[in-house]
Amino acid sequence: MLALVFILMMPAAVHAGWTENWESIRQAMVKVHSISADFTQKKNLRILARPLVSTGRFYYRAPGDLRWEYSSPLKNVLLVHGDKVAMYVWNNGSFTKDEGPQLEATRIVMEQIATWLNGNFHDNRAFTPELKPGNPASIVLVPARDALAKFIKQITLRLSGTPGVISSIEILEPQGSSTVIEFSHISLNTEISDTTFERVK
Amino acid sequence: MKYLLLVFLALTITSCRTLTPPPHTVVTDPYLREQCAPAGSPAIFRAVHVIHATIHGKTSSFIGITIGDVPADSLRATLLSVEGMVLLDAVDVKGHITIFQAMYPLDSEIFVRGLFDDIKFMFFPLSGDLVSAKVNPDGSLTCAWIDNNREFKKNAGPSGELVVSEYNADHREMRQVKLRPPLMKGFYKQMRMEAYGMRGYSLSLDLLESEPLEHVDGLFSR
Question: Which of B4, B50, B65 is opposite residue A48, by nearest beta carbon?
Answer without folding.
Answer: B65
